[in-house]
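Re: the 329-residue chain
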Amino acid sequence: MKLRNRSQRLAFTLIELLVVIAIIAILIGLLLPAVQKVREAASRAKCSNNLKQIGLALMNYESANGHFPYGDTRGSLGEPMVGWDAVILPYIEQGNLANLYNINMDWYLQSPAALGTQIKTFICPSTPIGPSSYFDNSQMETETGVVSSTGPRGCTDYWGINKVESWIAPLFPGFFPYAASFQIGNDFDPLLVGFLGRYQSGYSTIANVTDGTSNTIAVAESAGRINVYGPGFRNLGPNNPAEASWSDPNGGFKVKGSNPQTGAVKPHGSPSNTCSMNCYNVNEMYSFHTSGCNILFVDGSVHFFAQATSLGVIGQLGTRAGGEVIQPY
């Protein structure tokens, strides 16, 4: 009888088994957030490194050409319509792709093999869809109109700043000392032009970034553009396919602000549209990091900005020669 009882004691009782399972579940519950934080920290660091590589490429392009590339070549009669992302390919170790992509031809004339290539450096690892190309059947913009286009497109999560909208100034009195001189509706106002401006604004050079290279944004996250995202990473559905491609000659966006509750950017200049990032991902700063975005400055440095950063401060940092005294951030 004693031996039989001893053999029975070698097994777990149901209660003991449940206690062990409960302890394991608690440990997993405690460890999972920590693992997720470590994973996100690694993704954020990789994203920052992507931007540093882009910043180095822009500097090397400037050294070779005497100026930085245009951020938006629409309306550039006589100049090929190609994106700034395309012209820096040789400087991000994409020489083979650069050989496929003829920068002397408009983007809509490029081969599907070139347009459809996904470049890892252009994708933030925190973006839900990840590094994948997509199929585009939208119309591609030309100098004189549009042409039909069908084919694969490589994506990018990083876009340049081409302008700061004038309607931000009244929302932040004292932030823009020359606001009275702003040319309302002029996309090429020298006081509002960004570092990667449109063709009509002229090239950026080290000399004409008079606000200082450490005070001027070059490129920021505007991620996940295959879909439209709103506040809280809410997926609002598919986006216009042309808005996501690294080969798009419209490679920048304007700092304009959006509604923090809905993500809406209209009506433009609304007192409610004070969100600087992570409220709307199409032509606005947006990332899938926790509570902020990585931003590349002209001097090559990358900084993580909290999503609570004032839209007025982002506007100050968005001009290349606005003469602003940057507020603390």
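The first strand starts at residue 134 and ends at 136.
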